[in-house]
Write a structure and sequence with these properties.
The complex is a heterodimer. Chain A is an alpha/beta fold. Chain A is built from 16 helices and eleven strands. Chain A has a domain at 9-258 and 442-480: Amidase signature (AS) domain (Amidase signature (AS) enzymes), CATH 3.90.1300.10. Chain B is an alpha+beta fold. Chain B folds into three domains: 3-298, no CATH class; 304-416, no CATH class; 424-481, Arc Repressor Mutant, subunit A, CATH 1.10.10.410. Chain B has 15 helices and 16 strands. In chain B, the strands form four sheets. In chain B, strands 1, 2, 6, 7, 10, 11, 12, 13 and 14 form a nine-stranded mixed sheet that branches. In chain B, helix 12 (424-437) crosses helix 15 (470-481) and helix 14 (452-464) crosses helix 15. Chain B is elongated. The chains are: A alpha/beta, B alpha+beta.
């Protein structure tokens, strides 16, 4: 770890602004770090030459007085974002050799703001997973280790490569996408901050789709303020995404006033689930205390349909995925396995191109949408989804934000839970409800487990009120003063 | 209603039609790619049409306007909320692996079409619904021994699926329905109705029953691409079903494919083999909400439709229902007629447009745009008839000349000296001569044979090469023959 790679975005931004470092220097240090961290498998594609080229261009812009809000900052891009001319895989065999001719809106926004691409980060195949183990390009190792135990742990998922890259100091920040917790859970597992904004805040155009009604891009970084800076650049209305919402993007950094006096923080009683580790509950209580000490008021609330959220999510997301993934058929791009007939070509291509978890979800999704089962599963799930959204709407009549744990456990071992999809899906129990309701949420590192692994607390906000989420998260972050570092730090 | 006589008695057809009409719009339903017909394969394909990863549909507002306009033209319910759903199935020319369509909540609900039948009778056929959907691409199977070629130019083009109620009872009615629907779409400018280019295609739902009995099991015959083929397919399928039923068999609910060349159909798939399309609301698109005021605005700007135009022609111009029907069948023809009739006798105009003018169009193969005689010139001819410059008989001659040479009627009349003789002294002189030379005929007239007057008229016309004013000739003859 060099001094440059240990900077926060805020710190790097200030040094760049003062002219004490150049983007080229900053980027070179990160390129070295990316190489050094190869054993973690955080990147599917490294783009060092492109990074240097972008860094040089950034330094030129800065010299000309045209610095954007991410000017010169090297970041990782989850390999679910289509990047023009750069291999884009969604961590799937089926997208073999796919080089988009277009740039996703979110990545385009970031380049326009001056950011530098270090490479495309690893993820669960098509963002389906909570461990990053389903990637065709292999699992990602969490840079953290349990105390006195060198067995590799998962970084969580699906944005596991981004979380690892940021935690291991390979990148100042990274993009993630969150469908049911894919930003927040890996952020918690890797001891960093991950923010899922309101559905519709960031354009989905150019992001390989998993579950369209849930997918949302968001930032991952090592401080709340860093994620606030990244989100401001990523967000914005996009006419090319019909579900993107035309509301102004505020200056999230400015919202972090540190003042939460008199704010009401909801504590949902239904989140005290069976089997939750005692240390998670203790951290949650600690979080409540920190906010109370800062002048906020904790209010017990009820989100009565919480226990239906996970099954609802695991009907809606595979249903949409089964349809979204139909386009990977071997006809136009990516992998094609020949067959004697069109159907045989489809079967061979999709059989070989999709991994086991993707196939499982396509099968589940096809099943819940099929005639005779549609009403019992898909339609019922849609109804429950609106009840869950209604729970939140009711709660937000009384409170400004909601505090919960991010995940029911710390990071687990690579290979664990692979034979038990239900146990794997339970990772998302605290993150999925807000996803179904389309609400913003952030995970911040708030403490360590008894085994020395990071644990996250989650703050949820009202739709398009990311400002309150950042404000409360900033206060929580300051109180938690999380300084622990992972076992593996790059270069 | 026409019944089919079988061995065991009479059968009645029950017919419903599903028409796919390509919407007239510059760009596709959910992308900016061009919709122009006949372009080089795969030259009009956007990233969305090719279903590249991460691409999203954006609804074309103009297409929505066209669908609303069509719904209003069909006197149908406009649904202010409608929902796009995905119809999932795999095919090589369906890049997304689903077609974006409307299913449970279409943009247009129930409406009505009035059929104009051969005998001048009219009959109402209900419209069940109209919904918007994407067209698929085109598979080309005859270019390579083992592989197919795919052209995605058509992929994503907007279609309106217009579904009738099962209200038709004969092939003729089905034909009348398609003609009337096409006329309405063309009036509205929402579909060009060119069946040979595939911009209007029909699926036929048909079942047979004993008159008065409940409906039988239906078959669906797909993609019949001309009105003639639709009628043939109906006749053929009706006979096939009657035969099956009279032989004690049962009609299998199935989809059939019609071969217009052979005039036969074959089973494509049975109900059991039918796809499970797994419809669900497209999460990339929000429900389509229309503003009532916007719909109202489209309504006030609708062109006059054929039924209203026909009623007006009958009421204001005193035309027969039949003539009015012929004139309004095509928007351009109706406009042509109105130009000719403007400030003139509308019945005279109608007779000339329907008679000589249509006859000349048919004979020459020209259309209104290319015809050598335009509405102004035809009007000029009618003016010469009305003001007595030429007779109706001479006018036919002049019209032929006009068609031949593209000149104004007045110029031809002048050049050929066809001007009617309306000088009574000239005609009186001629009449005197004829009376003097034909005492026998004069005797007959005086004996009460009124018909002989026509013979005298003929003599005067002969002497003047038809140029004598017939009214004046009659008048003079009656006076002189006393």
């Amino acid at each position: 770890m060099s001094e440059l790679t240990n900077l926060t975005i805020v710190g790097a931004r200030d040094l760049l602004a003062k002219g004490e470092i150049s983007s080229k220097e900053l980027t070179e240090a990160h390129i070295v770090a990316v190489e050094a961290a190869r054993p973690l498998n955080a990147f599917i594609t490294e783009t060092p030459e492109k990074a240097l080229e972008m860094a040089r261009a950034s330094d030129t812009r800065r010299a000309a007085g045209e610095a954007g809000i991410l000017e010169g900052l090297p970041i990782g891009m989850k390999d679910l974002f289509c990047t023009e001319g750069v291999l884009t895989t969604a961590a799937s065999h089926i997208l073999d050799g796919f080089h988009p001719t277009y740039e996703s809106t979110v990545s385009r926004n970031m380049w326009d703001a001056g950011a530098v691409l270090l490479g495309k980060t690893n993820l669960d195949e098509f963002a389906m997973g909570s461990s990053n183990m389903t990637s065709f390009y292999g699992g990602v190792e969490n840079p953290w280790r349990r105390s006195g135990d060198n067995r590799p742990l998962v970084p969580g998922g699906s944005s596991g490569g981004s979380a690892t890259a940021v935690a291991a100091r390979c990148a100042l920040g990274a993009t993630g996408t969150d469908t049911g917790g894919s930003i927040r859970q890996p952020a918690a597992f890797c001891g960093i901050v991950g923010m899922k904004p309101t559905y519709g805040r960031c354009s989905r155009w150019g992001i390989v789709a998993f579950a369209s009604s849930l997918d949302q891009a968001g930032p991952m970084a090592r401080s709340v303020q860093d994620t606030a800076i990244l989100l401001r650049a990523m967000a914005g209305y996009d006419a090319k995404d019909s579900t993107s919402v035309n509301v102004a993007v505020p200056d999230y950094e400015a919202a972090m006033t540190g003042d939460v006096k008199g704010m009401k923080i909801g504590i949902p009683k239904e989140y005290r689930v069976d089997g939750m580790a005692g240390e998670i509950d203790q951290l949650w209580q600690q979080g409540i205390k920190w906010l109370e000490e800062a002048g906020a008021e904790a209010v017990e609330i009820s989100l009565p349909h919480t226990r239906y959220a996970l099954p609802t999510y695991y009907i809606i997301s595979p249903a949409e995925a089964s349809s979204n993934l139909a386009r990977y058929d071997g006809v136009r791009y990516g992998l094609r396995e020949e067959g004697a007939t069109l159907d045989q070509m489809y079967e061979a291509t999709r059989g070989k191109g999709f991994g086991a978890e993707v196939q499982r979800r396509v099968l589940i999704g096809t099943y819940v949408l099929s005639a005779g089962y549609y009403d019992a599963y898909y339609n019922k799930a849609r109804k429950v989804r609106s009840l869950i959204a209604g729970d939140f709407a009711k709660a937000y009549e009384k409170v400004d934000a909601i505090l919960t744990p991010t995940a029911p456990s710390p990071a687990f071992g690579m290979g664990d839970k692979m034979d038990d999809p239900i146990a794997m899906y339970l990772n998302d129990v605290f993150t999925v409800p807000a996803s179904l309701a389309g609400l913003p949420g952030i995970s911040i590192p708030a403490g360590l487990s008894a085994e020395g692994l990071p644990l996250g607390l989650q703050l949820l906000g009202k739709a398009f009120d990311e400002e309150t989420v950042f404000k409360v998260a900033g206060v929580l972050e300051a109180a938690a003063a999380f300084e622990a570092k992972p076992a593996f730090l790059a270069a | 209603m026409s019944l089919i006589k079988g061995k065991t008695g009479e059968w009645e057809m029950v017919i419903g039609l599903e028409v796919h009409a390509q919407v007239i719009s510059k760009s596709k339903l959910f992308s900016g790619a061009s919709t122009e017909f006949g372009a080089v394969p795969n030259s009009q394909v956007s990233l969305v049409d090719a279903a590249m990863p991460g691409m999203l549909p954006v609804l074309n507002k103009y297409v929505v306007e066209q669908a609303v306009r069509t719904g209003l033209g069909l006197k149908a319910q406009i649904n202010l909320t409608s929902v796009f759903e995905r119809k999932n199935y795999f095919y090589a020319d369906l890049p997304q692996g689903y077609q974006i369509s409307q299913y449970l909540q279409p943009i247009v609900g129930e409406g009505t079409i009035i059929l104009d039948l051969e005998d001048g009778e009219t009959r109402e056929v209900g419209i069940e619904r109209l919904h918007l959907e994407q067209d698929a691409g085109k598979s080309i199977h005859d270019q390579h021994p083992t592989q197919s070629y795919i052209d995605l130019n058509r992929s994503g083009v907007a279609l309106m699926e217009i579904v009738s109620k099962p209200d038709m009872r004969s092939a003729e009615e089905a034909g009348a329905y398609l003609r009337k629907l096409r006329t309405i779409l063309r009036y509205l400018g929402t579909c060009d109705g060119n069946m040979d280019e595939g911009s209007m295609r029909a699926d036929v739902n048909l079942s047979m029953r004993r008159p008065g009995e409940p409906m039988g099991t239906r078959t669906e015959t797909k993609n019949v691409n001309s009105i003639r083929f639709v009628q043939q397919a109906i006749e053929q399928e009706a006979r096939r079903q009657v035969q099956v039923l009279e032989d004690g068999g049962k009609i299998v609910q199935e989809t059939r494919l019609y071969d217009g060349m052979k005039g036969t159909s074959r089973s494509m798939r049975s109900k059991e083999e039918a796809h499970d399309y797994r419809y669900f609301p497209d999460p990339d698109l929000l429900p389509l909400e229309l503003d009532a005021a916007w719909v109202e605005d489209i309504k006030t700007k609708l062109p006059e439709l054929p039924d209203e135009k026909k009623a007006r022609f009958v009421k204001d111009f005193g035309l027969s229902i039949y003539d009015a029907g012929v004139l309004v069948a095509d928007r351009d023809t109706a406009a042509f007629f109105e130009t000719v009739a403007e400030g003139r006798d509308p019945k005279l105009a109608a007779n000339w447009v329907i008679g000589d003018y249509f006859g000349a169009l048919n004979k020459s193969g020209a259309d209104l745009q290319t015809a050598p005689v335009d509405a102004g010139k035809l009007g000029g001819l009618l003016d010469l008839i009305t003001d007595g410059t030429i007779s109706g008989r001479i006018a036919k001659e002049v019209f032929e000349e006009m068609w031949e040479r593209g000149e104004e009627a007045a110029a031809i009349v002048e050049a050929k000296g066809l001007k009617q003789i309306s000088d009574s002294s000239e005609i009186e002189g001629l009449v005197d001569e004829i009376i003097a030379g034909n005492p026998g005929q004069v005797e007959q007239f005086k004996g009460g044979n009124e018909k002989i007057l026509g013979w005298f008229v003929g003599q005067v016309m002969k002497a003047t090469q038809g140029k004598a004013n017939p009214g004046l000739v009659n008048q003079v003859l009656r006076k002189k023959l006393g």
